[in-house]
Amino acid sequence: xxxxxxxxGLLLFIEGLFLAIFPTRIKNMxxxxxxxxxxxxxxxxxxxxxxxxxxxxxxxx
Length: 61
Description:
Shape: flat
Distance between the termini: 17 Å
Strand content: under 5%
Structural class: mainly alpha
């Protein structure tokens, strides 16, 4: 449970850091996401989900 809370804190830290440093670029990226088809976003999300799982699994074992 401690690892999960640490990972969540790190995720929030990194996202907050990007928002603090690049607010205009983040806004432009969010506007451009509207043009990307939902299936492509789902595929990219699934890829990163699996990649993150594999990284965590590799580190833990």
